[in-house]
Amino acid sequence: MQNGRLSPRAGARCAVTTALAASLGIVLAGAVSGCSLDLLKPGAFDIFKQAAASSTVTAPSASASPGAANPSRTGKPAPNPVAEAQSDEPPPPPAPVASDEPAEPSTPALDRVVASVDGEPITMREVKDFAAQRGQPIQTDDFASSDTAKVAVKALIGEKLLEQEVKKYDDKVDEAQIDRYIQQLRQDKHMSDAEFRAQLRASGLSYDEVRKRARLDIERAMMIEQEVRAKIDVPDADIKAYYDAHKEDFTITRERLKLAQILIALPPNPTAAQVSAAQKKADMIRARAAKGDDFGDLARLYSDDESKSNGGELGWFAPSDVMDQILAAVKPLKPGEISAPVRTSHGIHVVKLEEHEVPGVQPLNDVKAPIRAQLIDQQSGAQLQKWVDSDLVKQHYVETMY
To answer: What secondary structure, in 3-state letters, does 337-349 show?
Structure first.
């Protein structure tokens, strides 16, 4: 069922205007935010790369890693004291050695190892590909004299360190978390499960691949929340100062209601028995929701509306776009509360008021959490850099070879 059943004036649900990119945005990319990471933002972890790119990653001394040798890479042989003590006459040239074997080609520059993390080599090709993807191509093979190359090597080392660290979270993500992640992704794109899967196929992605990427995204979010965001303290005074300086950002100009519903459908001209059965079912659902059962789960289980695949989510409405019976039932509610069953020509609705925006300046207490999250976002880059520089580099053996 379309939103129009709540909103005869509003028309059908808007069509999806942005197709899923091949990556679905589920990559190591984006701005860390909220509880609370907003993993669904395009580019949600770019801050990792930005911080790593500006970090100072140095190779530890040989003593820092027992048994890890750093042989000379000058290409000059060690002096031979026996040869130095002999005559000043030059030795005769060595006789040519006949061989049918072709000379071994030298190692191509792009395959040359320029760094390593815990013994895992990083080649020049990897660094150049990495830099090109970031829009900062490297035009030289002489990394020692190229600041662009050095920054790219350090950034890639930072990513390798983060990849090692995130492995600690492999066993902390369960299938239910992945289900909720993908469900939220679908809801943000206003897609049913069938539409979502069809878009995946069109993008060349399998559902299993998306789940794997979602798992990795959640693991990375956990890591950043614990190691970066949780260590940032934002005083209330800073929140108040930001609020006072950005009052226009917290001023609502028009009233809106965010709604979710469970519909028990009725046919045209229903019988008294049909109405009674629908009313009884709606009363049962409403009672379960009032006791604390998850509204989205109830919608997926019982609703006859197509929004059931999104947990009953309908989105935002102006009051003028909501049917009079529904508006009368939800207007007195506080956000989070659920209406009594409401009869319309489509059936019996149980409606949840999720949010209600009223014109005017929002009180500070209502916006403290998002302001705190935004201020944490602003400091996350520096905190991430500090973590990589101060902790991760010391916990791993990092070497550069240019």
So the answer is: CECCCEEECCEEE
Q: Tokens 């059908």 sit at which residue? A: 12
Contact in structure between 97 and 127 (CB atoms under 8 Å): no
Please give the backbone phi and psi of residue 355, each rounded to the nearest 5 degrees, phi first. -145, 155
For residues 274 and 353, membership in a common domain is answered with yes
d(CA 217, CA 34): 15
Handedness of CA 292, 193, 31, 215 (dihedral sign): positive
pLDDT tens-place string over residues 116-173: 998 899 999 989 999 999 899 998 988 988 999 999 999 899 989 999 899 999 889 9
For the record, the structure tokens of 39 come out as 């993993």
CATH number of the domain at 345, please.
3.10.50.40
Q: Are residues 214 and 279 in the same domain?
A: no
How far apart CA 315 and CA 354 sit, in angstroms, is 9
Residues 274 and 207 in one domain: no
- What does the pLDDT read at residue 236? 95
Phi, psi of 257 (to 5 degrees): -125, 135
